[in-house]
Design brief:
The protein is an alpha+beta fold. The protein has 3 domains: 2-196, no CATH class; 230-315, Orthogonal Bundle (Helix Hairpins); 324-473, Heat Shock Protein 90, CATH 3.30.565.10. It is 51% helix and 15% strand. It has helices spanning 2-6, 9-61, 81-84, 91-96, 170-205, 207-220, 235-285, 290-321, 333-343, 345-350, 368-384, 443-453; strands spanning 109-114, 119-123, 141-144, 150-156, 161-168, 329-332, 354-358, 363-366, 391-399, 402-409, 457-462, 468-473. β3 (141-144) and β4 form a beta hairpin. α9 (333-343) crosses α11.
Length: 482
């Protein structure tokens, strides 16, 4: 269960967003807590200072009342501001600090002492509260006792007296506990529905991904034409959806090409096999002369050689397509092209075709064996499709920052309507023609695959005056390491 939740993008996003919001809420309430504490302390200080001023005024203008026991310092002090004001606490205040709006008065107290600590008068002094000599150093100030229990305000009075008023801080501590409790229960109350809301929002935001998943499921069930609907895709997903659709188009093309390749391969293999089976069946139907049996064996051998060449061509194609991971090194094209020309020289002489070379040193990055196969295939094709007594040229040239090698023949060329298919597997311009590569239409496909693994290409262009030109294009070589 825990692993399932951890692997859920929606759950992780909800969790971390909730943690983030909780951290922000705690930080804001932390600051607000201390601001509230400062405001309450300032309110207490204001009333302390006001009452101290009232006590000092009473001592100056009605000193006789300070010693009158019944009046208890003259009863000059006004009630607490909160109880005297007609401003009613708001509902937010009642929820935030219920103890501060409960109607209870803060228990104020006051006292007057001579400089030597002799009491002159007092009002509701707490038990055990008495004169302190250090008060002489705190005249005209407000402070909290070291134990944090009482807030005091002190000043000099008439006739070398000390006036002091104060209030216990237990009401303040209770108010701050109310604030803290308010923060705790509001966060606990708000976070669950907030997390559910984030879960719901994320679920809605991830609906496009669900549509993509349903499209993928439809494709996996055999609906290869299904594509992601870009019309209803969010702008942030359009790029990804477009890329995925492009990938699906390419995969569909590969699927169709592979199916066509399999069908063509089966056809290419079955034809000679059927021929062999037919010849053997006919040979068994009636007695045959030695000469007839020899012709049958020769015919079967020809068909077997055709199967062999097809198998070799398929192996070459497989090797070419799996060469992507092989290491490519810097090499010189000139000896590779010359060796390929030497290999097809016998074929050229048999066809009475002249090979004319204009090769030169050209440093490229590649695999020597694979490139040798490219040039052998192209030269053999050019010789095969050249007229008797014709010529085939191979030219190495520099174009910008890259090298190209052109193989040119002057035969009938390739019809315009077939030019786009010339590099397809098993494509043959003339089904009756058997080329030097086996006559199975794989030679050019092999060349194309090899050059694509070299980050280059092979392109077809009509030869001016008739014929075909195949141009082998290499990628610009990286500078040699020093």
């Amino acid at each position: 269960m825990a692993k399932t939740l951890l692997r859920s993008l929606r759950w992780r996003a909800t969790f971390w967003m909730a943690v983030f919001l909780l951290a922000i809420a705690v930080a804001i309430r932390f600051v607000n807590y201390y601001v509230t504490r400062d405001i309450l302390l300032r309110d207490i200080d204001t009333q302390l200072w006001t009452r101290l001023g009232a006590l000092k005024t009473q001592q100056r203008f009605a000193p006789e009342t300070l010693l009158e026991p019944d009046l208890r310092l003259g009863g000059l002090f006004l009630p607490d501001i909160r109880t005297a004001s007609d401003q009613k606490p708001s509902m937010a205040m009642r929820l935030l600090i219920p103890s501060a709006v409960s109607g209870k008065r803060f228990p104020w107290f006051a006292g007057v002492w001579q400089e030597d600590g002799t009491p002159v008068g007092s009002l509701r002094l707490p038990d055990g509260f008495s004169w302190r000599p250090e008060w002489h150093d705190r005249m005209e100030t407000i402070w909290t006792t070291p134990a944090g229990e009482v807030r005091l305000a002190c000043c000099r009075g008439s006739d070398q007296t000390t006036l002091l008023v104060g209030t216990p801080l237990d009401q303040l501590e209770q108010a701050l506990r109310d604030v803290l409790w308010f923060y705790v229960w509001t966060i606990a109350l708000v976070m669950p529905p907030l997390a559910l809301a984030m879960w719901w929002i994320l679920s809605r935001m991830m609906r496009p991904l669900g549509r993509i998943a349903r499209t993928a499921e439809s494709i996996s069930q055999g609906n290869f034409a299904a594509r992601i609907d870009l019309a209803h895709a969010d702008s942030e997903l359009v790029g990804m959806a477009t890329t995925l659709n492009g990938m699906l188009d390419k995969l569909d093309t590969v699927r169709i090409t592979q199916a066509r390749f399999n069908a063509d391969l089966a056809h290419e293999i079955l034809n000679p096999i059927h021929g062999i089976l037919m010849q053997t069946d006919v040979s068994q139907q009636r007695p045959r002369t030695t000469e007839e049996l020899g012709q049958t064996v020769e015919y079967c051998r020809t068909l077997a050689v055709r199967i062999q060449k097809l198998s070799e061509a398929l192996l070459s194609l497989s090797k070419a397509e799996s060469a992507a991971g092989e290491t490519l090194v810097e090499l010189d094209l000139e000896p590779i092209v010359e060796e390929a020309a030497a290999q097809v020289e016998d074929l050229a002489q048999a066809r009475h075709v002249t090979l004319q070379g204009d090769s030169r040193s050209a440093v490229v990055v590649g695999n020597a064996d694979l490139l040798h196969q490219v040039f052998v295939n192209l030269l053999a094709n050019a010789i095969e499709y050249s007229p008797v007594g014709g010529s085939v040229e191979f030219i190495t040239a520099r174009e910008g920052e890259r090298w190209v090698v052109r193989v040119v023949d002057h035969g009938h060329g390739i019809p315009a309507d077939s030019a786009d298919r010339v590099f397809e597997r098993f494509f043959r311009q003339d089904e009756s023609q058997v080329t030097a590569t086996g006559g199975h239409g794989l030679g050019l496909a092999i060349c194309k695959s090899i050059m694509q693994q070299h980050c280059g290409d092979v392109v077809y262009r009509p030869t001016p005056g008739g014929g075909a030109t195949f141009e082998v294009q290499f990628a610009a070589a990286a500078p040699a390491p020093r």
